[in-house]
Amino acid sequence: MLKLSICINSILNHVLEKRPMRSKSTMKLLWMLILLVLDNGHLSKGANVNISGRPDVVNIGSILTVSSLVGKVAKIAIDAAVEDLNSNPDVLGGTKLKITTLDSNYSGFLGIVEAMRFMETETMAIIGPQSSVIAHVISHIANELKVPLLSFAATDPTLSSLQYPFFVRTSPNDLFQMVAIAEIIDYYEWREVVAIYVDDDFGRNGVAALGDELAARRCSISYKAPMKTDATQSDIRDVLVEVALTESRILVVHTYPNKGLEIFAEARYLGMLDSGYVWIATNWLTTILDTKASASLELFGNLQGVISLRIHTPDSQMKRNFISKWRNLTKNETSVGLSTFALYAYDTVWMLAHAIDAYFDHGGNLSFSKYSKLNEMHGGSLRLDSMSIFNGGDLLLDRILHVNMTGVTGPYGFTSDRNLIRPAFQVINVIGSGTRRVGFWSNYSGLSIVPPETLYSKPANRSSSNQRLLNVIWPGETIQKPRGWVFPQNGRQLKIGVPNRVSFREFVAQIPGTDMFKGYCMDVFSAAVSLLPYGVPYKLIPYGDGRNNPSDSELVRLITAGVYDAAIGDIAITTNRTRMVDFTQPFIESGLVVVVPVRKQSSNAWAFLRPFTPRMWAVTGIFFLIVGAVVWILEHRLNDEFRGPPRKQVVTILWFSFSTLFFAHRENTVSTLGRFVLIFWLFVVLIINSSYTASLTSILTVQQLSSPIKGIESLLNMKEPIGYQQGSFARDYLIEELGVQESRLIPLNLPEDYVKALNAGPKNGGVAAIVDERPYIELFLSTRCEFSIVGQEFTKNGWGFAFRRDSPLAVDLSTAILKLSENGELQRIHDKWLLRSACSSQSTKLEVDRLQLGSFAGLFFICGLACFIALIIYFIRIVRQFMKHGSDSGPDLSNSNHSSSRSARLQTFLSFVDEKEDSVRARSKRRQLDVLSTRSVEDASMNSSKRYRTALSSERNGSFGNAPNQVTFGP
């Protein structure tokens, strides 16, 4: 093994010293790398190296680019962590950590070689590398040899645990950083960004993650600007020139620190740090600002208004102690500040120490085995069969993933998907000669102005209303949020499709012999564009053959196909179209209506009957009779005006009933129940009378138009043909939404076609009605009074200008259209094109709907209920009076049979009901007096007899006292 190591080291020395290698050795090395990456080798059953129990020293490797900003601070932090651990026997129980650091010197190839060197020296784990590119390759070696690879700086989201199970990321994943940037962009309501990135695994994969997160929020990366890893100043300038020609002004920079500063220097030179631009840098920028203890004014001058992210670590006593210690560690270093990568490097060592301690507690030991595939490689001077597999790699990896501790970065542990718990970032704004924190982002609560650790104890709230950042000072020293886009400066004009109509050209029409258009819609568009704070270069392209009205739906579809950038004209905003494009604010209301031919209907001798339907007349007449009868019943026993011969009483009922229509009834109501019923009835009569008068007045004073079609409902119930404007969405709506058979629909092109089809009618090859949008119909009817709209408008929509999805121009034009509406310009344009001298139809209208019974059903129900309640109460009172006063007024029925008794009883009751109540009470009173008189006579007779018997008894008692044995009769 020693000989093999000496052989391999000699080759590695050639590499490190950058000496040329023989092609034969180089080919063998490349073949070995391919074998390690592609082969799932098997463990040999050869010799093993096994150290049981806790060893005195544990070898740990570290791969850094020591001369880099991250590598420099990470080396200091790692050495400090090792020193602290080795002086603390409570962590590893006396075992010492020995970390060997190798410098990759920005070279992926050297990083691979260094990783292979560590595999010869019985290394339990490797800390590093810094680069995501190197991590992708080394992770294959770590997988084969089962050596955990812990990196605090390789943040590429695609270094997944499925492909690289032995790769452990010990700092926040770049995926969360991209989520934070996407939420910032969504917070400011921007929709498109430009991504500037280094063209390697780190840059491409980070931008891909950003694109996914933006897409989830209906945003997108409109332009990607990759750069070579070794891009020169000229290369950077060429890329930025291409970016300046794009539409978006939201620029996200995801690169390495050394290239990032060069990008901003060139951007400032090109004037791309002025007002209107938004620059968002990933955490490479805060790494520079934190690491450089004293940044120059020139550096800050290139970064004014830039937003960046910094990994957030909560404040704690441990962190403050480490910051104090850092000052002592770097007192001999020049311009070495403390970045978050130093904190995570420090915690990575401590986390690994805790994992190794748990590994030995679970029976783990230092055991290594030969890699069998390497034994098959013979010949040449490249001898790598000394590389070995760590037998306890799986157990150590498991212990690493189960570490739960508190470090200088706060709570430290891993989630089920092997990301660090509670990822969070600070949102930093560079201003002046320093930075200003404008908020925080955490995976728990999103954007906030309070530290995330204060929110973990509260329920998560990611609602848009809860997202907040402080005011940002943007490039150009403005606090007004930039619009985020401009028209590209590459000379390309917007291709705007305009329907080339052949009818209703007042809305939009091409001027013959030119590429210009005129009409209501064109004036609205021109006025709205003139209100924008920037120029809009565009070219109008006619759509249609000039012989038939084009399909607006097809025009909208061509926008999604990329043929047009936008479409303007009389384009209705419908549900299906909004799924394809974005529309502006509607500039005119619209909706489908039904147009029919109508005939004039003048008044005649029987016009007074037309306000009510026959059912209404019938029910009203019946209620007059019912109320008259009810009032007669309630008043008959009390009121002399409702008594008399039967003929008189019938006349009284009829007269009283119908005289209430004019409130001219002469009969007085004296009963409480009668007045109760009459109050409700008079209220009903008042409503009926008022409604009748109003309807009859309209019939007699306004010229009426009539049509058998009353609206869309009656049209759908027919089987007659229906006309529609060719190219309109009315056809699809009638078929898909209302279920009209396609065979019933007839396309019409010109207003003259409307007239011809409606006049011909369905029996002569025409149509029964036309369904079209209200603006067209109002213009059509302004000069053709023989037709009219019937029924209500049965759809509600409007016309707008169509643009590609998420086009910022749609939003700005919507604001401009609202301004036109507020200042009256929109109405002025409407009057210019669409206001016509209307015909006499303005003084006419369709036949007024006759008053239906349903409109008064509630009134009749209330009145009927009042009558019913009054009759029930009256009946109960009559029965009680009959039981009290009328039961003895009839003949003696004690000896009659049962049936004749019931008939006589009923006859007695009816006679009692017909009798006046005063007579009943008088008869009852006389009967009571007769009873009292009879009782007085009987009482007197009884008293006389009683006195006689008393006197007789007294005489008898006296006689018996004188002569007890003698009986005397007589006085």
Describe the protein in words:
Helices cover 44% and strands 16% of the residues. The chain is α/β, with parallel strands linked by helices and 971 residues long. The strands form 9 sheets. It has an 8-stranded mixed beta sheet with strand order 8-7-9-10-11-16-17-18, sandwiched between helices. Helix 24 (730-736) links the parallel strand 29 (722-725) and strand 30 (745-748). The relative contact order is 0.07. Mean pLDDT is 82; it is low at 1-47, 840-848, 892-896 and 959-971.
Structural class: alpha/beta
Average predicted confidence as pLDDT: 82
Gyration radius, rounded? 51 Å
Q: Any low-confidence stretches, pLDDT <50, length ≥5?
A: 1-47, 840-848, 892-896, 959-971
Termini Cα gap = 173 Å
Brief sketch in words of this structure:
The protein is an alpha/beta fold.
